[in-house]
Amino acid sequence: MEHKDVIARDPKQSWFYTETVKDHFFHPRNFMEEESAYGEAYLGMVGSPACGDVMKIWIKVDPSTKRITDLKWQTFGCASAIASTSMMSVIVTENGGMTLEQARQLKPQTIMERLGGLPLRKVHCSVLGDKALRAAINDYYRKHDQPERIEVEHGRIIDKELKITDHDIEEAVLEGAHTLEAVQQKTKVGTGNPSCLPEVEQLIRFYKDKHFSQYLGKDEG
Fold this sequence. Notes:
single chain; about 220 residues; 2 domains; 5 strands
């Protein structure tokens, strides 16, 4: 059966996605079939109200090397979220596994490169996996009484009246708001304090380059 999320609108093009993305979508690696049978692990969970995705990741860690020896995941999301997390699970556990600190530094761009790219409108879905991974790493440090190693993802306040942070701006850009007007529509940033708008515009450019550099100069439609 054809899945609506992977079929192109153009009848001349069978897929929105690369063959690698298609493979990981239909044959996801390290998917959690039965949570109760997995045993003790460290859990990270995130959600994205924008597209309804919820992501859970479990990791097992070698106590002596601090390498991730196994990673399992579940999501109720789109093809991009599934394929990206499947590929991430391969990257994190291959060649003996990444250390916790190496895994924490894993970037969405690395995952997308291994997938051969994703449609621009689906890039925001691809970041769920690495966010949940960082949450699982935090869970490891929390349970091993190392609070100084826990990294909480919060933001620096940009709009002091509305308490909007740089993290809020980043989320808006990831969800497809690539102009000041679009970001304002999503966040209302600067509507009560226009003095912050120059910094907002700088952040939009920064996050566009960070997450969408491979698309710059191409049609974003």
